């Protein structure tokens, strides 16, 4: 369909698409604040934009009611002069059921707007003290700091 998303395509392990989707795994783990027990790309849709926009279903846990992450990943056209990651994780939605449709319009979607780097962060505990990175935290750090000229 012109301008719309393609039908869901099963992802073949080792394909160019699979390898590209795997490039965002560490970022997804960080944003989901968990280490995935698996990373199996189930399938994806494509939409031609200024490059290719993919909607991807990724299994990230072996069990549980919602072991799926939906991700929107942008592969930019070459030679556009764009600076930044490519492929780019644009947005994602964690804790999805395997049969859940893509729905990136809900308010609970964590967005990384193209070029804006917007990410919802959990609120910091007001009672927590900020760690002073300039002060040594262990005796080894203190010894190393004293040895420096």
Describe the protein.
This protein has one domain (about 10-120). By secondary structure, the chain is α+β, with helices and mostly antiparallel strands. Strands 1-2-3-4-5-6 form a 6-stranded antiparallel β-sheet, covered by helices on one side. A hairpin with a 1-residue loop joins strand 2 (about 40-50) and strand 3. Helices cover about 15% and strands about 30% of the residues.
Which key phrases capture this entry?
alpha+beta, six-stranded antiparallel sheet, single chain, 149 residues
Summary of the model, kept short:
The protein is of the alpha+beta class and 149 residues long. The chain has three helices and six strands; from the N terminus they run E-H-H-E-E-E-E-E-H.
The stretches of 5 or more residues where confidence is low (pLDDT under 50) are 110-138
Euclidean distance between termini CA atoms: 65 Å
Overall strand count: 6
- List the strand order in the largest sheet: 1-2-3-4-5-6
Task: Determine the strand fraction and express it as a percent band.
Answer: 25-35%
Radius of gyration: 20 Å
* Major sheet description: 6 strands, antiparallel
**Helical content band:** 10-25%
Total helix count?
A: 3
Classify the secondary structure makeup into a structural class.
alpha+beta
Order of helix and strand elements from N to C terminus: EHHEEEEEH
Mean pLDDT: 75
What's the number of domains?
A: 1
Write the layout of secondary structure elements.
Layout: E1 9-10, H1 16-22, H2 25-32, E2 40-49, E3 51-59, E4 68-76, E5 88-96, E6 110-111, H3 139-147
Antiparallel strand pairs: 1-2, 2-3, 3-4, 4-5, 5-6
């Amino acid at each position: 369909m012109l301008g719309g998303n393609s039908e869901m395509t099963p992802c073949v392990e080792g394909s160019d698409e699979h390898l590209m989707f795997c490039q965002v795994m560490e970022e997804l783990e960080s944003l989901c604040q968990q280490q995935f027990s698996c990373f199996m790309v189930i399938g994806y849709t494509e939409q031609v934009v200024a490059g290719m926009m993919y909607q991807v279903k990724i299994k990230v846990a072996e069990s549980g009611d919602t072991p799926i992450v939906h991700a929107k990943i942008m592969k930019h056209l070459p030679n556009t002069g764009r600076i930044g990651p490519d492929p780019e994780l644009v947005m994602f939605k964690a804790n999805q059921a395997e049969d859940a449709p893509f729905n990136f319009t809900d308010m609970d979607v964590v967005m990384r707007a193209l070029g804006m780097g917007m990410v919802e962060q959990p609120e910091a505990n007001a009672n927590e003290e900020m760690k002073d990175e300039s002060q040594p935290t262990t005796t080894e750090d203190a010894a190393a700091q004293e040895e420096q000229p």
